[in-house]
Write a structure and sequence with these properties.
Blueprint: E1 4-7, H1 9-15, H2 23-35, E2 40-45, H3 58-66, E3 72-76, H4 80-89, E4 93-99, H5 102-109, H6 113-128, E5 137-143, H7 156-168, E6 173-177, H8 185-199, E7 206-208, H9 216-226, E8 230-233, H10 253-263, H11 271-284, H12 294-297
Helix pairs in contact: 2-3, 2-11, 4-6, 6-7, 7-8, 8-9
Bound molecules: zinc ion.
């Protein structure tokens, strides 16, 4: 079975650190990730550069990444203005982050649930004005779906209702994000089943997990067992959310790829080439800690990866 590992380091990782990675270094990193076989990369977010100067070069990165054959170029768009910029740049996939916690939504994008649903509706209308072949895939990313550092527990019913609302607004699919690293494997199973029951399995294929409390790979495994086919991860576990205090660290791409390959899933990724991309990242961000167990320990002797 194939699993798509969607690399979110250039967006989720870099937005959480104060160091601004030079654009040329980002391009080299993105190219190296693609060379390693990564098939989808979230290269940035179309937010005002004064809010997130780390991601101010997103349009240039989309243009760069679009030239890499076979790569799906994904971006985050917090609003209609961002979506217009993403469409103009030619991104293949747009994700609007809709926080299940309204407190977090107001803090993160300064909009209520009703306002975010309006944005999603306007963006899907914009996409539908494009010729069919040029329409980007449009995802509603349900952040803080498993809990929020500002509100605590998030009722599952609210997540399900927002998923239904986003599909009704014209999203092609929804994704679930554990922004705060609160999820546990039983909750992952419960919430996937609940959302699938409401919108159908083909409308939710991906999960965005953080390893804040060490349960990232356990949560990924729970989702894989139920048939999730896309997992976000960031190289070196870079990541977090500057507006959700205490949320840090996506699941580590290298460790996830190792687990998938050891279990016989096809990722299309070459582990040694992934380490070469990690070396570029480490060189570009010498003062940022990089995480991951497998890069430290190395692959097991005579490890035979599935490709
Ligand atoms: Zn995240």
């Amino acid at each position: 079975m194939k699993v798509l590992v969607s690399e979110v380091g250039p967006r989720d990782g870099l937005q959480s650190i104060s160091t601004i990675m030079p654009t040329e270094a980002k391009k080299r990193w993105i190219t190296a990730l693609a060379d390693a076989g990564v098939q989808e990369i979230e290269v940035g977010s179309f937010v005002p550069a004064k809010l997130l100067p780390q991601l101010g070069d997103t349009a240039e990165l989309v243009a760069h990444a679009r030239r890499i054959p076979g790569l799906t170029v994904a971006v985050l768009v917090p609003n209609m203005k961002g979506a217009e910029a993403a469409v103009a740049a030619g991104a293949h996939k747009l994700t609007i982050p809709v926080s299940c916690s309204e407190t977090h939504s107001l803090r993160n994008v300064r909009r209520s649930h009703a306002q975010m649903l309006d944005e999603a509706r306007c963006i899907s209308e914009l996409i539908r004005t494009l010729p069919a072949a040029q329409r980007p895939h449009f995802e509603g990313g349900l952040s803080t779906a498993f809990g929020c550092t500002l509100e605590g527990a998030v009722p599952e019913r609210r997540v399900v209702e927002l998923a239904e609302a986003l599909i009704a607004c014209g999203c092609d699919e929804v994704g679930l994000s554990d922004t705060s690293g609160y999820a546990d494997p039983a909750q992952v199973r419960r919430l996937l089943r609940a959302v699938w029951g409401a919108v159908g399995r083909d409308r939710l294929t991906g999960l965005h997990l953080h390893n804040t409390r060490g349960l990232g790979l356990a949560n990924a495994l729970a989702a894989l067992d139920l048939g999730i086919s896309t997992l976000d991860a960031s190289q070196g576990g870079l990541g977090g959310c500057p507006f959700a205090p205490g949320a840090s660290g996506n699941i580590v791409t290298e460790d996830l790829v190792f687990m998938l390959q050891a279990m016989g899933f096809e990722t299309g990724i070459d582990f040694q080439s992934l380490l070469a991309a990690r070396a570029l990242l480490a060189a570009a961000l010498p003062n940022e800690p990089l995480y991951g167990m497998v890069p430290l320990a190395g692959l097991p002797l005579n490890f035979e990866p599935t490709s």
